[in-house]
Amino acid sequence: QVQLVESGGGLVQAGGSLSLSCAASGRTFSGHAAAWFRQAPGKERDFVAAISWNSINTHYADSVKGRFTISRDNAKDTVYLQMNSLKPEDTAVYYCAVGGSYMGDYVTRPPDYWGQGTQVTVSS
């Protein structure tokens, strides 16, 4: 079992930046892919970004390419999401996830573990 706790969400103006963190505990997550998803009100949960266990491969949704960067520090059991040039349409609850398989922006196998989510609100 892996427990995930996100932090770093908040309110920011359009064009601003936020950095999300996700700390893992329990079973080691270093051998598994990690990802971020988001869910806006009234919408389905969407894939945002994923990173392989060794950080060699990253995948991004088209909507965030060039603006968001996913990274991880296996020594700290933490995965990050740096979000720049934020837009109002980025407003959502952001969820960290561990496990799963990804090809481009397609989730070929869903994650095994989910965090509780952190709210990101971008004002216009």
Can you walk me through this structure?
With 124 residues, the chain is mainly β. 0% of the residues lie in helices and 56% in strands. The strands form 3 sheets. Strands 2, 4, 5, 6, 9, 12 and 13 form a 7-stranded mixed beta sheet that branches. Strands 1-3-8-7 form a 4-stranded antiparallel beta sheet, with no helix packed on it. It is globular, with a radius of gyration of 13 Å.
Summarize the structure.
It is built from no helices and 13 strands. With 124 residues, the chain is mostly beta strands.
Question: Which key terms come to mind for this protein?
Answer:
124 residues, mainly beta, 7-stranded mixed β-sheet, 4-stranded antiparallel β-sheet, 0% helix
Q: Which structural class should the secondary elements be placed in?
A: mainly beta
Low-confidence stretches: none
**Distance, first to last CA:** 40 Å
Q: What assembly state would you assign to the polypeptide chains in this entry?
A: single chain
Shape: globular
Number of helical stretches of at least 4 residues? 0
Mean pLDDT: 94
H/E topology pattern: EEEEEEEEEEEEE
Beta-strand proportion? over 45%
Number of strands: 13
